[in-house]
Amino acid sequence: MLGIHELWLFVLSGVLLNVTPGPDTVYIIGRSMQMGWRGGAAAALGISCGCFFHVAGAAIGLSALLMASSTAFSILKLVGAAYLLFTGLQMLWSRPTLAAPVTGEDDRSSLRRVFLQGVFTNALNPKVALFFLAFLPQFVAADAPHKPLAFLTLGLIFICTGTLWCLVLAAFAAKAAHRLRQSEGVIAWINRTLGGLFIYLGIRVAMLETR
After folding, report:
1. Rounded CA gap, 7 and 31, in Å?
2. Quick count: other Cβ atoms within 10 Å of Cβ 59?
3. What burial letters (b/e) apply to 158-182, b meaning 16+ CB within 10 Å?
4. 106-to-61, 68, 113, 172, 191 alpha-carbon distances in Å
5. C-alpha–C-alpha distance, residues 87 and 120, integer Å
6. What is the average pLDDT value for the chain, to the nearest integer?
7. Quick check: 200 and 100 in contact, CB under 8 A?
């Protein structure tokens, strides 16, 4: 009814793409090592919410408009790059602190910050919009009567499978890093790794060009 075809292939492709290591994987593992499973879960859920912005954008045509307008693309690109670079520098300059159980208002605030970082790193990245704009139409018939709904359905399936994988990844990383979180040296190394990752992503986003 929605014009979706080869759903099995879409699900398989989505799972393979989600389990392929990338910047999101590094971010989730890093936060899991820093803050335990809840920190990794907050990162994973933030990334998924950020992806939803692009799925919704593809469904209603905003992503296509973004790609067609060099001005809109450049604005989003520069805002995203600035945010990533600022966050990366903050992490590089932060002083390591030993992990503590996630309790109290300060820790809830930390989880909220990790979640929002996951949201913004995806929502402000034009490359993610390009991905969904290129990937989703491959599985929707050209004459589908309800393309926006088809795009939204496929996007939600992709996000759900990705979120499940990321939560499992966070759990394994948190368990493996339980003892490592008691070392300030390890925490400092994680901060530098995540900071470097954000700076690298910021530079890549800044160098993106419309196609």
Report:
1. 33
2. 21
3. bbebbbebbbebbeebbeebeeebe
4. 40, 43, 11, 25, 19
5. 10
6. 80
7. no
CA dihedral of 48, 66, 57, 85, whole degrees rounded to 10: 20
Handedness of CA 89, 20, 115, 74 (dihedral sign): positive
Write out pLDDT tens, residues 125-179.
Answer: 777 877 887 788 888 887 777 888 888 999 999 999 999 999 999 998 888 776 6
- CB crowding 195-207: b at 16 or more within 10 Å, else e: bebbbebbeebee
In this prediction the pTM is: 0.76
Q: What burial class does residue 211 get, using C-beta atoms within 10 Å of its C-beta: 0-12 exposed, 13-18 middle, 19+ buried? A: exposed
DSSP-assigned states of every residue in the chain: ---B--HHHHHHHHHHHHHS--HHHHHHHHHHHHH-HHHHHHHHHHHHHHHHHHHHHHHHTHHHHHHH-HHHHHHHHHHHHHHHHHHHHHHHHSPP-----S-HHHHHHHHHHHHHHHHHHHHT-HHHHHHHHHHGGGGB-TT-TTHHHHHHHHHHHHHHHHHHHHHHHHHHHHHHTTTGGG-HHHHHHHHHHHHHHHHHHHHHHHT----
Residue 43's CB is within 10 A of a number of other CB atoms, namely 30
